[in-house]
Design goal:
The complex is a heterodimer of chains A (337) and B (241). Chain A is built from 14 helices and 2 strands, in the order H-H-H-H-H-E-H-H-H-H-H-E-H-H-H-H. With 337 residues, chain A is an all-alpha fold. Chain A has one domain (5-332): ABC transporter involved in vitamin B12 uptake, BtuC (Orthogonal Bundle). Chain A has a two-stranded antiparallel sheet. Chain A is globular and about 55 Å long. The two termini of chain A are 14 Å apart. Chain B is built from 10 helices and 10 strands. In chain B, the strands form 2 sheets. In chain B, strands 6-7-8-3-9-10 form a 6-stranded mixed beta sheet, sandwiched between helices. In chain B, helix 3 runs parallel beside helix 6 (144-157) and helix 4 packs antiparallel against helix 6. The interface between A and B is medium-sized, with 20 and 29 residues.
Chain lengths: 337, 241
């Protein structure tokens, strides 16, 4: 039973969401907000691996999101729709249903490869210097996309809505809600597995004392490489989801502001706590929507809230604890591995 | 010869720190490198262990051989994992946030499915009963002496055959210091080879079989501990008359 609680709960949530969307209990606005929430969860948890667990300071996370967004969008548009850029679809459009997750994964792989831009320098630098490198990576990726006119350049790239329409024609379900939810669960699960593995212990050792880690037989370069690949790859998956939810991408959507948003969520939730990142991603997304009537004042109110929170709880909402540490009794009822 | 260092020249940037250092360690020995501050003792250890930058000094010429093979290009984690070397660094470098037990566990990082890990835990806990008492305490709460024991215990958990210690006596009360050295002697009797870097020449020569005296990057005297302790020059410079 303990083993089944989490999968059953997740399945029930997914079924509830699909049913609610299908029957019109939640409108498109709520659906979109929920999907953004999920995407933010992926962004925050994956960045937490670097900034929280490994103790580095990456401030270019949105760059990898951009790579994932563009690669998966280009793939899905080229494969499943007829477009001005790519002409006739390369595969039957009805296959989009199964093809989309693969496109998202491909976006993730491409983003992971882009993560090498940061992973290799991390072997020899750390701290502030590595932070500058991550920032540079963010800028490099954005200006690369802006100057590639084939894929729209600064104007952006669209056509993903057609892919979604193709999917809905095959079966009339809110497919993006489903894939975003599944993608988020998948990403958090992988992160959890990685952090609990022996490699994850290595990550924590690198965080505390790199020299001590190395003389304790931890291959620090390998640890850094896998952590950066995983983190940027998952950001790529988040980017792919984002592109398909919105139906349109442009390079400036992934600038330093987006990276900062992810960083805020990590520090708000607590460094080294996946539960914290999930909570803070939820909190930030909902707060941004709830405070929408305040209009421009929103951008004063939210940072102010952050300042107050950091003043009184600098370790973030959860510190480095997980749900199970906070409520040990709950551990009897669930297992998430 | 277990470890041999031959004509080692090492630079930090443009500054030459070691000018052609040669020494060796035989299996089963306790060898000590003694010398004042800035003599190049720690640099020697860091060169042997190839610590990651920026601490890693640059070896310009010379060779470092372990069991006959050059280890100049070998990464530290490989030295620890495959060649069974261990380092207890200056300042101990324990993982302060982790408990004593977690520190020891981390040292078994590369030892997958090794059935002797359990036995090694018991060995460390019997060598240092204090560690067993403080098993679940965060290691930053330990006293200096206990941290030193933990650092040594952690090195033992990597399944080492050769251990290098950088100033284990630093910051320890004399009684504790003797405790640590007696433990090292006992480990040596069980077959562990030890290279000891010490500023405290008195105690180092009491426990080591052989020694080298380092001064500004060069070896100025060598011999058995008894010879060195009797050498009038060494006596004057390092043993307080």
């Amino acid at each position: 039973m303990q083993r089944l609680t989490v999968p059953l709960l997740l399945l029930a949530t997914l079924a509830g969401l699909v049913l609610a969307a299908k029957l019109g209990w939640i409108d498109l606005y709520v659906q979109t907000t929920l999907m953004f929430l999920c995407i933010n969860i992926i962004m925050a948890t994956s960045l937490n691996l670097i900034n929280g667990y490994m103790g580095e300071f990456s401030c270019g996370h949105a760059g990898f999101m951009a790579v994932g967004a563009y690669v998966s969008s280009l793939l899905s548009v080229a494969l499943f729709t007829s477009s001005a850029t790519f002409g006739e679809p390369l595969l039957p459009p009805s296959l989009a249903l199964l093809g989309l997750p693969l496109c998202l994964l491909a976006g993730g792989v491409a983003a992971a490869l882009a993560g090498l831009l940061v992973a290799f320098p991390s072997f020899r630098t750390r701290g502030d210097y590595l932070a500058i490198i991550t920032l540079a990576a963010n800028y490099i990726i954005i200006s690369l996309v802006e100057n590639l006119d084939v894929i729209g350049g600064a104007r952006g790239f669209m056509g993903m809505k057609k892919v979604l329409n193709n999917m809905e024609e095959v079966a009339g379900l809110p497919w993006m809600v489903i894939w975003t939810f599944v993608g988020t669960v998948f990403c958090v699960w992988i992160l959890q597995r990685y952090i609990r593995s022996s490699m994850g212990k290595g990550v924590m050792a690198v965080c505390q004392d790199e020299i001590a880690a190395e003389i304790m037989s931890v291959n620090t370069n390998q640890v850094k490489l896998t952590a950066f690949l995983l983190s940027s790859g998952l950001a790529g998956v988040a980017g792919g989801l984002f592109a398909h939810v919105v139906g349109y991408v442009n390079p400036q959507a992934f600038n330093i502001l987006k990276s900062t948003e992810a960083m805020v969520m990590v520090y708000l939730g607590g460094m080294g706590s996946l539960t914290g990142s999930i909570l803070s991603a939820g909190l930030m997304t909902v707060l941004l929507e709830v405070l929408r009537p305040l209009q421009i004042i929103k951008w004063v109110a939210i940072p102010l809230l952050l300042i107050i929170l950091m003043q009184f709880r600098p370790e973030g909402i959860m510190g480095n604890r997980e749900l199970g540490d906070l409520f040990p009794k709950l551990k009897k009822y669930y297992r998430f591995k | 010869m277990l470890l041999s260092v031959e004509n080692l020249v090492v630079k930090y940037g443009n500054i030459e720190a070691l000018h052609g250092l040669s020494f060796h360690v035989e299996k089963g020995e306790i060898v000590t490198l003694i010398g004042a501050n800035g003599a190049g003792k720690t640099t020697t250890l860091h060169s042997v262990m190839r610590l990651p930058p920026p601490e890693a000094p640059r070896v310009v010429s010379g060779d470092i051989r372990y069991q006959g093979e050059s280890i100049l290009k070998t990464q530290p984690h490989v030295l620890v994992d495959q060649l069974h070397m261990a380092l207890v660094p200056e300042g101990r470098h324990i993982f302060g946030n982790l408990t004593v037990e977690e520190n020891l566990q981390l040292a078994t990082y590369a030892r997958k499915n090794d059935s002797r890990i359990k036995h090694d835990f018991e060995r460390v806990y019997s060598l240092f009963p204090r560690m067993a008492e403080r098993r679940l305490q965060r290691s930053e709460q330990l006293s200096g002496g206990e941290q030193q024991m933990l650092a040594i215990g952690r090195a033992l958990m990597t399944d080492c055959e050769f251990i290098m210690l950088d100033e284990p006596s630093m910051g320890l009360a004399p009684l504790l210091m003797y405790d640590v050295f007696r433990t090292l002697k006992r480990l040596n009797a069980e077959g562990l080879t030890i290279l000891l870097i010490e500023q405290n020449a008195n105690i180092a020569l009491q426990f080591a079989h052989r020694g080298y005296v380092l001064d500004t990057g060069e070896i100025v005297a060598k011999g058995t501990s008894a010879e060195l302790a009797a050498d009038p020059e060494v006596k004057k410079a390092y043993l307080g008359g």
